[in-house]
Amino acid sequence: MSLREVVRLYGNDAPEADQREAFLSGRVPVAVYGLGKMGLPLAAVYADVSGNVVGADVDPAVVEAVNAGECHVEREPGLPELVAESVKCGAFETTDDPAEAAERAAVHVVIVPTPITDEREADLSILRSVAEDIGNGLDPGDLVVVECTVPPRTCEDLLEPLLAEAAGHDEFGLAFCPERTSSGRALEDIRGAYPKVVGGVDEEATRVAELVYGEITDNDVLAVSDATTAEAVKVFEGLYRDVNIALANELATLTDEMGIDVNEAIETANTQPFCEIHSPGPGVGGHCIPYYPYFVINGFETESPLLETAREVNDSMPEFTVETLTRELDAEGKSPEETTVAILGLTYRPGVEETRATPAGPIAERLSALGASVLAVDPMVNDAERFGARLISQHEIYGRDLDAIVLVTPHGEFDHIEWERFDPLVVVDGRQSLDLAETDHRVYTIGSG
Fold first, then answer.
1. Which of 43, 189, 330, 347 is the most buried (most CB within 10 A)?
2. Does residue 234 have an active-site annotation?
3. Among this protein's residues, is 288 annotated catalytic?
4. 159-187: per-residue pLDDT in tens?
């Protein structure tokens, strides 16, 4: 790492051009805390831009791998090469001691998980721990940037006083600059697929964050009024999607009673510029959308019945999927306890390994509770035991005496399934991705009937 004179940006009255040059030349050392699937790409981009980054992660295996120029995050185009090159040229190294990273840095970027508790409240323990480490090494003029999603008011009510107490002073900047990144396209997103939002707890923190991210992204930098507004922007993005999907899912449950293809109606309605209804499906998964509503529902005293209802609707879709399957099986004279069902897709979306909150889980569990023999096919995962299912390869499904298939996640590999090789099946298509009209299979598409 660079031994050059350290330049600190918060409260710096030098011309901004000089501050920008200091950042780009590596004289503003950066620490990135959390080297997971979003943190490692972010750290690599910072290293590529500034040339002076230390990454901190509590997992020694991650630290060892990155310091060897290896990339533990898979299926991110360009990331292995960027990590290897950044480490090789000395722009990027890692440590398993966050306190050490804090001592060395002038800009501290935090991107750690924010799970929810069993009571569905935001669990900020990881963030709090990292903030304490940063605070102990926080020098006057440092900037702390939070990228991980948190409940609104976290920076102002929790982090700012915590950092000040640990540091013994308040001469630092604190800003919230939410990640707007999807797995499989992290580098593209970080470098400018969308405008970058920044908001500080004071005007100077906002200014410095805007300066830094003006070099990280090729897109616009949107400076909002304060850190709480920036926190709300990130949460609101998830809330919008959850509520919109809930609308689509509720409409999908009316398909049979209305006697129409709801998916067709949605698609046609969306040709009007003020309408943008999402697509229905068997549920909502991932580490974001199913959790962010609780940052508001359980984080504030004001009631939020719309958000609660949306969560209830989306959480009900796995049960609706199973009920639909059992009804279609009954129409074929079969009961669940005498059937073998294959679930296609365990991850929450195509092409990613993430299974958190995947609707495939409750679907498999419900089918098993009804007595069905449940198999699972997913090219992204290695085990389905925790879902109460037996994992088999895609090739193996032809040798199984299947009665039904439920498509939960439309991985590209499933496009190559040879449906004509099966005896007539009951198929529930949860994602409107199968074209089996010319087959003898009994197909029910969620939202189309």
1. 43
2. yes
3. yes
4. 999 999 999 999 999 999 999 999 899 99
